[in-house]
Amino acid sequence: MAKVPAVAAVAASGLVGGYGVARWTGRRPLGGVALAAAGSLAAYEWNRQAGPRAATALTVAYVAAFAGSHPLAKKVGAWPAVFAVAGGVAAASWAVTRRAQA
Question: What is the pTM of this model?
Fold first, then answer.
């Protein structure tokens, strides 16, 4: 079985955790802090593991997933949307970092 890189879990956790913090505290800026902290750590690791181009592309995907979760939530609900985009970012991160380390 393939090992999932930790950075994929960090990226997914940032999206899920950011929403969870915002939802449970009622303070959206706190959720943004969690989202940004995990995203920054993930971007650093993507750059270290796969280089600046991959890090830029994955960071854009991370931000796009965050933005895309909002309209998707109107169609499928908030948590399903967050889990869907988090899974997509984790899969992209896994694919890119796996390829770079091979």
Answer: 0.91
